User: Fold this.
Amino acid sequence: MANRLVVVSNRVADPRKTAAGGLAVAMGDALASSGGMWFGWSGQVIDPNNPPPSPGPSGVHVHKAGNVTLATVDLTADDHQAYYLGYSNGVLWPVFHYRLDLADFEAGYIDGYRRVNRMFAHKLLPLLRDDDVIWVQDYHLIPLAAELRALGCKQRIGFFLHIPLPPPQILSAIPAHEWLMRALFAYDLVGVQSQTDLSHLHRYLASEAPAEEAADGRLLAYGRSLLAASFPIGIDVDEFVEIGKGAEARELYGKMREQFAGKQLLVGVDRLDYSKGLPHRIRAFRHLLERYPDNRGSSTLVQVASPSREDVEAYHEIRRELEGLCGAINGDYGDIDWVPIHYIHRTVARKRLPGLFQAGRVALVTPLRDGMNLVAKEFIASQDAADPGVLVLSRFAGAAEQFADALPVNPYDTQATAEAIQAALAMPLAERQIRHQRMLEQIRQFDVHWWRKSFLETLMES
Assistant:
């Protein structure tokens, strides 16, 4: 691609660091191919009355990471509270994950959300070239293109939503939802994870805008046209396989095999977030032990729940609930030589994760709602094709649209989830091999490189 790619996201990561997460890997690959720029928040919260030494007259920190330019800005404490903690994670995150009961609509955070998006636009505009292609990432920055257009920006701008998009009845509960969704029409292309998300967007705009659909599939409203499409994000399969061959992954796999010799391992790896359905999963495991007592002493769940947004009360509550449930099961069913649940409230390094997945006979990926869920794809990539594990997958994860060969579950139905886990544990080898082969073909065909290429090609043609 001749045009320079400019990625804008809430946070910026060094794409040279392989431990950076899925978005960093995807963006790093895209940027490295053309030598682009990555713009966003530095992660620093400053006191406006006592600011650190200025990074330059524009207030933008700029440095090179290989052939990629990293450009970041700081946030004041007030902006961080209103834009990031308040509106992005206190309103949009819970609503987009169908949790209206957890949304804080009364705090007036929307002013801070608008203010920071406007500040991002003002800081980014002087750094742009005429032929740049701008790719904005995720819910923190929905109105960014509208702010850029107001300043005269003419470049192509695409937007990708990594989290789920709820149906119109939920979306319209957001105060000023019309303003938020109208802002999407400043983009040339809007991408979502799943066909379900795309259907929700079309239904919302048809009823609220109201938008008309043109013959070419574009949505017409507010005097503009918008192209929206589904681009399910993937992983770099080959890279993850290579990580699995590394010393750290092999070491963890060896330790797991030794520590849990003779046991069937179930594995779960999630951020500690109310969208992940962790208490429901633990209750399903309890039902498994109650209904199928042969699993007592022979099946062990290793649940990693990485710390996440620990300054939010809802996360304190879910941690207390989760630890109480795990402790109760271990107390009721555990024995001197067997602990039913190994609960880990720490982040497992990415270089070690394949070793954990390789040791798992069953992966439990059971969110209550998830945009995609890359853990499901990493588990598949990690498996030994000769003796693969089984994926138990929530039908409410975006990945469920791609994986007909996973065992689908409704995570709210804990007894039915327990039945699916038992079916996974008892699944014959030949069936496991066939299911794994088909899912592996899916993640190879629709990997992160396909995601990036498909989105950018569609944006250039839009």
In short: The CA atoms of residues 385 and 437 lie 7 Å apart. Residues 313-333 form the longest helix (21 residues). The chain has 16 helices and 16 strands. Residues 237-445 form a domain with the Rossmann fold fold (CATH 3.40.50.2000).
